[in-house]
Each structure stands twice: as C-alpha cells, then as structure tokens.
Amino acid sequence: MNSNDLKSKLSRFDQHISSSKKRSAESRPPDHYRLLAERLGGELVTNYTGVYCLVNTHYTRRYRHGQAGQATAPAPDSLDRSAFTVQEQPGRVATSSLLFIDTETTGLGGVGAVAFLVGCGSWVDGEFEVRQYLMPDYADETAMLETVLAELGTDRTLVTYNGAAFDLPLLRARMIVNRVSRDIPMADHIDLLHSARRLFRRRLADCSLTNVERELFDFHREDDVPGYLIPSIYFDWLSGRRLDGMADVLEHNRLDIVSLWFLADHISRAFESDGASLDEADDLHSLARVYARRRDNEKVVGLYSRIDELSGGRSQPDVALFHAQAFKRAGDWEQAVRLWRGLCNREGREAYWANLELAKYYEHQSGDFERAYYHAQMATSICPYGPNHRSGLNRRLKRLTCKKKRNGDI
C-alpha cells in the first residue's frame, strides 16, 4: 500500500468518526432513556460520544448520618494527611480538593466488568454534593467516562474504599478501552479501607463499609440493596427496561460516598486529637500502635491512661505488654514493672515475655539477683519458642547463679 492510499483510508475513517459523533450529538435520546432519568430524579446529558444520566443530590449541614453530627457544622478546611498513612506525612489536605469516588459495576472483575454507575462526592458551597453518572446502555460508556474524567485532575485528592485494588484500576482500564485516557489524573489517593483497618480492625472483625458506618456512627441502612444483587438489577434494565431496584442502587452508591466523608473526618479527628475523640480501648490501642511504628513513644505512653481507664484496669495481655515496653523505652520503670508483674503469672506468650523482662530488670536495674533468677526460671518453664530462646535462657540462669554466689545469696 502506498502513502496516498493510506492517507485516503485514514481520511475516510476520520470522516466516518466525525459524522458518527455529529449524529450522536444531534440524535434524540430514546424514550426509555428519558423514563430512566425521570424515575431516578435525574437528567439526560448528551455529549459528542453519547448520552448519560446525571443525578445530583445535596446534603445540607442539617443532615445527620446516624448519630454522627459532623454535617451539622461546617466541614473543616483541611484534614490531617498523616491520618491516612502508616508513616507520618507532614502537612494537611484541603477539604475542597477531596473527591470521594465509588462505583457500581457489572461484576467483581475480569475483562467483562464495567462500571455502569460512578458516584463522585465533594463539598460545594458549604454542602456535600453527590453527582452520579449512570450509563443507560453499553454504547454510552464513553460519554459517561468522558464526564467522569472531567471530575478528576492533578489538583484532586481521590478518596475511595478499596479503590486502590478495585475501583481505580477498573476505571483506568475502561478509560483505556474507550480511548478516553491512559491514566487517572490525581494529586493523591486515600484508600480509607487501609486507614479503617489500622484503627478499627482490632475491635471490628468485619471492616466492610456498611459495618464500619454501623459501628462508628450508629448508621443503619434501611432496605439497602445487597451488593451482589446490583449487577442483576442493571442487567434487568438492559434486557427488559425494568427499573425495579435501580433507585435503590443509586441510594446505595450515595450512602457509600457520604459514609466516606464521615469516615475520613472521623479518622482525621482521631489523629488530630491524639485519640481524645475515640472512646474504645481497642481503637486507642490501635492508634498507639501506629504511633509506635512512627517511633513516637511519647504519644504511645500518653495514651495508656485512657486505655486503662476505658478497660476498667483490665487491659488485654497483649495491650499491657505492648505498653510496658513503651514505658521501658521512656524510662518509666515503675509503670513497666507494674504491668509485667500483672502478666507474669498468666499463661501464654505475654507471660513468658513479662518474666523475661522482669529477669532483665532485676538483674540490671535493681541488682536483685534472687528475683532475677526466679523470673528467668519462670520464663524457662513456660517458654513457647525454640532452642535459640531456651539456650539464651540457660546462659542467663548460669550467669545469675554466678552473680548470686558472688553476692552471697547461695
């Protein structure tokens, strides 16, 4: 094929695309599209690639999400950036830059999965606004994705729940397939699933968003459509123009997005207040573990009094051992020894470590070799580990025996 033939073919192809775009923009949306928008309280929007349905919902400051009342007051200007990371990340993220995203899809993954509904939430003029983009049919996917792309930008911080593993890769894949964009532009991404697990997984075995909102905000969804039914509801619309349940799907998506805002604000407040906004011992301990990973031992130590108070002075063995080590690092031997003594006569690994730490303390800090020998023996008798630990304990016992002899204890 010579260059003139190639140019001719490309020209005809370009004319075909241009005429298709023009026909798409000038064509009248089908009647069932208009019915869809009417029943959902939305509007049909046409662009050069097709049609999508837009549903706007505003949540005023008087809105209450369960018992959480943050929406009754103005949203904070910014959130603590390090609240959403493992390591401390200085700075704050502006609330106005946050874009909360949640998708509803035709499946849980794979080549055929499509996001037929994309919800975007943000603060606009003092109200929380949710904009939902719904594609009436597969032919309109590009039209919807073009508009979703306009929501994004390098000045936006995206907020999702498991979006790093699911929503964003799916959106990116569909944008590539539809030649909309090769990447999802953003300034940053906050995946609240990981943030929620860091703070609440100890207390909440189930960290699904619906369970988190129920436990944290006392928000109970009424007649919420189960996630596994959502694809079939959309397929019913595609195959039979049936709208049963479609409004419930949009409500499910809206509530997910609103919960993301409340969760982000709740987690940020926990770090900003150094745990003062939390009222569960397990959550405070989880916060202390984050501070420990950041090597902020002062904050770890500062949290224990509230943990002890909330647990009625009966902290779980692993919690007591963890904080005993924090007191040890802070040089507060009195508190550390008190916690180790409370553990040394129990069963399990915590008792082993408590006895070992007491043996070290009495040997090196107080010079009480008799007590050090006793706790070393206790540690040896309950040691749950292998030969390396036992070998170290035997050496400790021999050394303590020599010290006792020199001290006249034997």
Straight-line N-to-C gap: 102 Å
Q: How many helices does DSSP assign? A: 15
Largest sheet: 7 strands, mixed
**CATH architectural arrangement of the largest domain:** 2-Layer Sandwich
Kindly report the oligomeric state of this protein: single chain
**Order of strands across the main sheet:** 1-2-7-6-5-8-9
Shape: elongated
Q: What does this protein look like?
A:
The protein is α+β, with helices and mostly antiparallel strands. It folds into two domains: 252 residues, 2-Layer Sandwich (Nucleotidyltransferase, domain 5); 91 residues, Serine Threonine Protein Phosphatase 5, Tetratricopeptide repeat. It contains 15 helices and nine strands. The strands form two sheets. A seven-stranded mixed sheet has the order 1-2-7-6-5-8-9, sandwiched between helices. Strand 1 and strand 2 form a beta hairpin. Helix 6 packs across helix 8. The longest helix is centred in the middle third of the chain and has 27 residues. The termini are far apart.
